[in-house]
Amino acid sequence: MQEKPNQVRIIQQRGAALVNMAVAALIVAALYVGREIFVPIALAVLLSFVLAPFVIRLHSWRIPRTASVLVVVFFGFAIIFSLGGLMVSQATRLAAKLPQYQQTLSDKVESIRGLVGGTGTLEQASTVLKELGTQLQHGNTADQPDNGLAKQGPGKAIPIPVEVKQPDPGALTTLAKIIEPLLSPLTTTGVVVIFVAFILLQREDLRNRLVRLAGSGDIQRTTAALDDAGKRLSRLFLTQMIFNAVFGLAIGIGLELIGVPSAPLWGLLAMILRFVPYIGALISAIFPLILAAAVGSGWEMLVLTALLFVALEFLAGQVIEPLIYGHSSGLSPVAVILSASFWTWLWGPIGLVMATPLTVCLVVAGRHVERLKFLEIMLGDRPPLKPPQLFYQRLLAADPLEAAEQAHDFLRDASLEDYCDTILLEGLRLAEADRQLGHLDEERLNRIASTVRELVADLELNHETGATGVPSIDLSANPGAAIAIEQTRAQLELTKESSGAPPILCVPGSDKLDEAAALVLAYLLRHRGIAATAEEADALSMSKFVSLDMTDTSLACVCYVGQPSTGKIQATVRRLNKKKFDARILVALFGAEGTTPPVDAVVDLVSRGSFSAALSAITQAGDKQCGAATVDNKAAVFN
After folding, report:
1. Do the Cβ atoms of 527 and 477 come closer than 8 Å?
2. What CATH architecture is 393-625?
3. 44: closest CA among 182, 183, 202?
4. Among 220, 317, 318, which residue's Cα sits nearest to residue 276?
5. Torsion angle of alpha carbons 495, 501, 505, 510, nearest 10°?
6. In 3D, which of 473, 533, 529, 466 has the Cα closest to residue 503?
7. What are the extents of the domains in the chain?
8. How many angstroms separate the Cα of 148 from the Cα of each of 99, 124, 153, 154, 619?
9. CA 479 remoteness from chain centre
10. pTM higher than 0.70, yes or no?
11. Confidence band of 636 (pLDDT split at 50, 70, 90)
12. If you average pLDDT over every residue of the chain, what do you get?
């Protein structure tokens, strides 16, 4: 009876996944088929995010909304059209001068071919350049008529050449041929301008409509999503545009000083292509490098041009950008590459330029819409797993190396006890929860214990302590705890010198997870300079308990990660007392809060919740043994 609802639930989940995949496929198909409509709309939305801060600023100066929008749109598109006109004029001027640079580039290819002595690609390039030079200098003679004067040989009739001429086109036909190539870009530009002005004018109205579409019952979440998207995208686009403009200006000035022709054109190209992540700056460097090789008589101009691009890109990408954007724009590196590939396939070059902003929009939507959560997980830069989850996953995979790397990264900014409490212990609690559900078999439990053992060995080997092997103690910060630690260590060291055996014994309560906790607690004690050792998981079993040596043990700590019963704990403590009646017994309950049983009344020493609490209880117990405090030995509980 119980399997049937589970099967129905699984079928429903699979059906929902198929429906979501079908909807996603339809959306992608609609974006591809309707790209002539969606591309201008997407451009308009992105430009509106860039121009919106200026409209808000003008409106705050008591300028009417309509006038603010018109002024901002006019100046914004005036700048865009001016840059476009500059690029066209520079490209036209460069095309007129290209034949002058062809011979220099051909000579350099010939010189390289002579040095390498090959007849492969370089020889083919030289041949192509020579043929291009011949065509540019003399024109194509194949199209010149012979006016019927060519002789075909003796005794052969001379053919009469026939030439078909089209009538001169009229003024309307000529005008149509001129306008036709410009019709599509002009239409797209007009649509973008209209949509930008409309979005800026109706900004509040569009926001309210989106809130209504999302559902008026969850206004808080929708408002948070819109605010997050607006602030994030406006800041990202505006900052990126200004930064790329400065980068392009630096490239243009540098190329002008080097002497590369049409430097403003290459500066504008670098500014535009730098919107393409990772490879945009490299693509923008190709044409200036080729032109520098064709113009300069030597190789100095080519080398200087390459150094200019490398130095500016390194300075921009590794130094300035992290300071301006932070460490990330909200996308993972893999997501940036995937989004660039996807949007380029979908919308061509314009999609490549808009890939990052559009993907940021998707990540923001996934952050606030539950059904789109997978987008933030797949594309966002937030860690997909929390540190305890990652640690637990590495335990299951038996990967102590990555677990040790995570530990060393955490220990750069935090203490060892913080790491053990916030990451390691939480990971063991996740394992205990799975064990309670029956998801962990004996093999995986053994794998977890062995991985923790290797991790502890790595930490004990590599984690730095003081010169004596004991972490330094700040007496001014916590003199009471420091003195107690020193007294405990002194007393326990005396016990160790007299007997040669570890004075503190960490004993697992029942299973492998308890063994892992005992290993960590023993390591933390040794890290404080207190001699301690840990037993294996079956140390309290009937077969192993007889051989358990507690002769010189001053304190035994029983570790539980699970939820042992009060009777089980009392029986364990009774057995240990019979084994060594004068040894103090500490029960360390590492389970989550609210899951540990009420055993304070039946156990001499109890520690709850964390390794720090256990260390504190052991320290106080040692302090009492040294005579620093007098307590009733019948019941001393440390929570």
Report:
1. no
2. 3-Layer(aba) Sandwich (3.40)
3. 202
4. 317
5. -160
6. 533
7. 34-131+184-201, 393-625
8. 33, 37, 13, 15, 115
9. 43
10. no
11. very low
12. 75
